[in-house]
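Dissemination and training. As part of the outreach component of the grant, students in the summer workshop were shown how a complex can be specified as a set of sequence lines and then modelled as a single object. The example used during the hands-on session is reproduced here so that future cohorts can follow it. Participants entered these lines:
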Amino acid sequence: MRRSTIRTISIVLFVIITLFYLSPLFLAKEYDEYGDISGIKKPIKFWTSKMLKLGLDLRGGMEINLYVDLSELPRNDHDSAVKAAVEVIQNRIDQFGVAEPMIQRVGDNKIVVQLPGLRDFQRAKDLIGKTALLEFKLVATPEQTSTVINQVDSWLAQNYQKFPYLNVLDYTSGQPENAFEDSLGIDQTAWYNDILSYLTNAQSGRMSVSYEYKQDLRRLLNDPLFEGAVPPGYQLLLEKENSMAPREDVPVYLLIANAELTGTYLTNAETRFGGKGDFGGQNKSYVNLRFNREGSRIFERITGQNIRRNLAIVLDDVVYMAPTIQDRIRGGEAQITGNFTLQECNDLVIVLKAGNLPAPVSIGEERIVGPSLGSDSINNGMKAGIIGLVLVMICLVLYYKLAGMIANLALCMNTAFVLAALTFFEATLTLPGIAGLILTLGFAVDANVLIFERIKEEMKSKTIKNAIETGYARALVTIVDSNLTSLIVAIVLYQFGSGSVRGFAVTLFIGLVASFFTAIVVTKAIFDKMVAGKNIEKLSI
Amino acid sequence: MNIFPNPNFDFMNKRIAFYFVSAIIIFVGLVAIIASGGLKYNVDFEGGLSLELAPITVAGNSLTVTQIRETLNKNGFSDAEIQELPNSHSFLIKAKSEGGIGDNIIRTLKEEYPDHTATDTFIRAQDEVGPRAGADLRAKAVNAVLISLLFILIYIWVRFRFTWGFIAAFGLFHDVMITLVVLHFMKMEIGMTILAALLTVVGYSINNTIVIFDRIRENMKLYRKEDDNQLVNRSINDTLNRTVMMTLTTLLVNLSLLTFGGPVIFDFAFTFMVGVIAGTYSSIWVVTGIVLDTIMALKKKKAIAVKSKK
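and obtained this result:
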């Protein structure tokens, strides 16, 4: 293939990629209740589900860096202590319902939590900073459950107007849909009599909630207005979602609210492998618990009194498991057995340990950007960037005339490509990122200026065509050297920087690569087209 | 069109004088910095609280700084510094961080003015960094600067010469120092944003240096007979139009950032502007000057060696 063909293809690709990832930004945005961009409208979703994400500093939100204090722990336990802390935080943030939360372990003992778009800072902080609570609670008997469900149903029948967000009510808009009515055989006039039963699919004392109603049920259970609906002494809780199968039904439990035992009585939890025959063979893994002396006594009493019933393991109001009590357990050591994979056992151990966090977690750094400051920053940043860019473009056209216009085209392509690439890599645009973008435009200008100055110099002694060739060839060396050193700076920044500085580094890196391409390949192609086959005597440069 | 059609300035003539200028600025700056107890860091590197609040209106009037100060004093936050930000009537509250002081201040304000602080939207920004996290970030920042200097040194060593790499790295260090000195005299506090700007200065300034180095290397092949002083001058003059054009466009963008960018970008743009000026100056008079000195010193040494062999 000829070199010019490759060049044409690469330029076309460059433009297509840019348009592909940038178009959602202009074509189809969805807005959330605060008027923030929340996603992409359906018609465009088929081609890309990605859209340029704005960093916390631009759209508002909260970032908290937590430090796990490992100083009191032996080395071997460090890893599991941090994992337990991450699990606790993850768990709580899942309950909070933020759109794109990020919880990341950084280094040995630091946990970074980012909650973009969050408005309710105080509540989030209270939630994250709370001590984890692991409890063992008895599951109510099927008879108790049925009774309580009936009571809640009749309470809701009186008060359903208070919860307008419930989907069941929504789409019936006061009148039940036929399908809904038919499937449950509910009387048309009293469709609101069985709201909880309907939401939780209640049958003979067992409950589970489908994907469709999960959020509604959660919101209902956390709603202060719902307080008092469940009879005192009982508690309705959901089981932990299976992150591998998010659309699966989630079991719902009615628990005896009074905790029989808490995590503080637990001294150890670990995964073990079969060996005792009754645990289903050699390769089965199970979880072994050990309680302290007082815990052992309480545990013996509970297990003795409640054989055949289920005891739920609850962490921060989320049920992780509700194993059946097989026998009275003496001696303070218990096994949780079942058809578990090793992974499942390890996860359960993390949960059990989290309830008695051995290592205190403290907030080392917290950054909040309110929505008003965020939008100010976007507006200012955009305004400053665009005015700066236009000034430079005017300058280039005045000084380099036609060649300046070519350079300007390259500049525009460069800007668009950086934004498209950020979208592709699902990186976020931060305020320092905008600074990085502006800087790379500087580099793009520099590359063009180097080339043009060189062409001017060469024109003194060569034909136009030759001057362009040598001008590009000579300037290339310098551009490579200067871009590579800047790339080094970008990589070092990425490695050693944190948060927003990383955003700067990523933008700088992409921008440098793009400016290299636009300056060397794109503008050269245009010049070549201009002088091809003609004997030009004057170049507007 | 050319800014300088055929530039032929003798840049290297006064280089020794410029060495002194640089040395004096850095020396005086360092003394001033040390005398005033070191560089001033913001919450990012020092730890503490920086809380920006939107104006709180009670009965049609915005609360004044004095009113907020009274409220905070009354509730035991007498150490907090409060200032009104220009233009926006927002407040900036600064304090030493003592485990959640920001939350306590917000809670107090919510209790005092419940009707006007019902939602958290009156919080424009809250940065609270514990002392340990601050020290952590500071160490990382110093590492980032030093390691990028080291890598640049290695790159230029490979592409040019070891001494040139060393001199270039020294030049960058010079630019960062001068910028820090100016920031200190402007009473600006150093944080993450300014760090990003400093590293941008490093990336920009090395660009200038490399353009000149490249030209010196090229001219060394083209004009073998030429006197070193003349050759270096020629190289700077050859690239002068580029240097001026580049500095001009960069400062133009910077001007726009300074004017329209708002407070957060202002710090970045100001630091970058100082750095660009320092970097352009140093790449011509300091870095290239020292390179000329080493080239001449090397030749002298060789000449002496040749003589002594005879």
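Chain A touches chain B through 76 residues (CB under 8 Å). Students were then asked to discuss how this feature might be tested experimentally.
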